[in-house]
Amino acid sequence: MLAAALVLGSLAGSALAFLTPVDGMDLFARNAQVSSGCSTNGPASCHNTTAQSNLCCFESPGGLVLQVQFWDTDPSTGPSDSWTIHGLWPDNCDGTFEEDCDPSRDYTDISGLLTAQGASDTLSFMEEFWVSDDESSEDFWEHEWSTHGTCYSTLEPSCLPAGSPKGAEAVAFFNTVVGLFQTLPTYDWLASAGITPSATKTYTLSEITNAIQSAHGFTPSLDCDDDTTIFQISYYFNLKGSVIDGEFDPINMAEQGSCASEGLKYLPKSGSSTRRS
Ligand SMILES: *[C@@H]1O[C@H](CO)[C@@H](O)[C@H](O)[C@H]1NC(C)=O
């Protein structure tokens, strides 16, 4: 710190005038969280009793929001002691859903976008916890954004503050998904109920959902390969305000997943690398 101050202090006035704004912009980018300006006091999505006109502050029609997580074991992805992010999907309030809502915003180079717009922390987290078992992380992120992210009414570019850079709504999306995922530690919740990965043990569906319900307060849905090998969990929410900075209110699952009611396998991941962050 002292050395840096000394170096700066020794620079000529003109150089300092150049350096100061660059440094200032960098700081701004790191700290800037886009703000929606939306209140979270209005009705939750899917719970309005009258038509809402400002869809920048009320998620519609996709007001049933699923935070979906993977447990990938074939091949394994991510830390052996954490589920990973699949996505954040907007379902309509009746369980139907829209996809690929705005091809003009199918951004590429998500890593570059996040880095340029001050979300490198989000990016490093994604590199560890938002990974695919059959494509590159970059392709997976692009897919999740273009397929699902473009469908959020509260993430329309016109909802963002004037002068926001191109793609700022996608940056907000990735920040929100990571932030929400961090509040849903499936591995830890199951482990604290004695439910840990095992090559031999089986669990009933209600053992698993009850464990999550005890920790989280609401029931998730579980998806299985071949009815019994657990690979995915979905947490359901309604939203007050905007995806950018609104309140995600947890609710019980709206739809049963594909797992059978018993004989469920929660297989260990291969490799032993545990989570860094
Ligand atoms: C809730 O608001 C949306 C968006 O304006 C509207 O389409 C829907 O009909 C509203 N629901 C009710 C019950 O008024």
TrEMBL record:
**Some GO term, biological process aspect, for this entry: which one?**
RNA catabolic process
- Which keywords accompany this UniProt record? Disulfide bond, Glycoprotein, Hydrolase, Lyase, Nuclease, Signal
GO terms of molecular function = hydrolase activity; ribonuclease T2 activity; RNA binding
According to its UniProt record, this protein's enzyme class is lyase
Leader sequence residues:
1-17
Tell me which Gene3D superfamilies the record gives: Ribonuclease T2-like (3.90.730.10)
Does the record bear Nucleus in its keywords?
Answer: no
Query: What are the catalytic residues?
Result: 86, 144, 148
UniProt EC number: 4.6.1.19
Tell whether Disulfide bond is among the UniProt keywords.
yes
**Origin, by domain of life?**
Eukaryota
GO cellular component, alphabetical, reads: extracellular region
Known InterPro entries for this protein? Answer: Ribonuclease_T2_eukaryotic, RNase_T2-like, RNase_T2-like_sf, RNase_T2_His_AS_1, RNase_T2_His_AS_2
Q: Which PANTHER family match?
A: RIBONUCLEASE T2 (PTHR11240)
> Which family would the database say this protein is a member of?
Belongs to the RNase T2 family.
* Protein name as it appears in the record: ribonuclease T2
The taxonomic lineage of its organism, from the top, reads: Eukaryota, Fungi, Dikarya, Basidiomycota, Agaricomycotina
